[in-house]
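Hello again,

I reread your note about wanting to compare the complex against the isolated chains. To keep things tidy I'm splitting this into two emails, and this first one only covers the full assembly. Below are the input lines as submitted, including protein chains and any nucleic acid or small-molecule components. They are followed by the predicted structure of everything together. The single-chain runs will come separately.
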Amino acid sequence: MRSPACLAAALLLLALRLPAPAVAGRPLVARDRKPAPSEAAATARWLAAQNTWGVLSTISSDLSGAPFGNVVSYSDGVPGESHGIPYFYLTTLDPTARDALEDERTSFTLSEFPLGTCGKVDPENPTCAKLTLTGKLKVVDHKSPEAALAKAALFSKHPEMEGWPKNHHFEIFKLEIENIFLIDWFGGPKPISPSQYLDYGRDQGSVMFL
Amino acid sequence: MRSPACLAAALLLLALRLPAPAVAGRPLVARDRKPAPSEAAATARWLAAQNTWGVLSTISSDLSGAPFGNVVSYSDGVPGESHGIPYFYLTTLDPTARDALEDERTSFTLSEFPLGTCGKVDPENPTCAKLTLTGKLKVVDHKSPEAALAKAALFSKHPEMEGWPKNHHFEIFKLEIENIFLIDWFGGPKPISPSQYLDYGRDQGSVMFL
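Full-complex prediction:
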């Protein structure tokens, strides 16, 4: 019989719509290279799983509502287990977190170029993939079970974060995705809904991008 | 005696406040590594000279005014001659150019991380430099002498651009810089004015980041 703690964890995963951790014998979507251009949701998830940093754009309160892009680290899961939701570790000493607390509208932008898989193709060439996730940047309650999962995701990919100054009051933020813009081939952006993106691989357990 | 064409070019450079191309015997600021954290304007110019792509953030007309970051290539001069003004080659088939034509407010964000000079330091660590230039994104008249200089800057660093489809109607855009946000060390953003940034190295001819 399962313990109450295990049941609680299972209910939490269900509530958060996160896939369960991979277990022995459970099917796993294992991808060892960039998905084909025809696989839009897979490509978007691959970009989110492979990168470790991107640009968060907010509506700047310091600059009278101008858009303001800032370089940030993120994680969408512990290595090998990607969930697609980007988590961030931000302090209000930085304008991005302050902006988001005033106006949640945010986009998060990733490029394939720094992964080294675009070869000699120009970073702006449509075959060198680009992903922009737009939505609302929200603080994750630091006492919540989701915060524990997000911390594991962040600290496993960014070990130095755990030692960042306590008096800077870093908080975990997440992007609640409302719109997805993916260019991974000629012919314009690929239509992907947030649920197509988040559900990718869910029916097969977890997604492991190698 | 100098030819009228040469005189016209000199007057143009003066009008655009661009440094003259380096000539034999003229002093040149040659930097072969990342400037020290105390040299804020030099660090910002080094980041702009060394990178070839970044994220342009606009106010999205498709997404009801949300900020929208997009991966783009750029150039601030032919290799070895950096002027600090980022030029872009954009088409209105892409939302970024359409957004800028409706609302010029834009920011352009660069990271040191993809240059490989941050070592094992996290991309969000303040010692791994980050630069955000905020201002107005403007079309450069394609018949103007500035467009010729911008094309030389862009096509020398992004050779494939010259062959991009004519029927996509690419235009040259420039960022008119109004605000500079640079993090290159602990202690918060460095105050740099647009003129401090643009004038860096001007009194010594040209800036060559090797």
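For quick reference: Confidence is low (pLDDT under 50) at residues 1-28 of chain B.

B.
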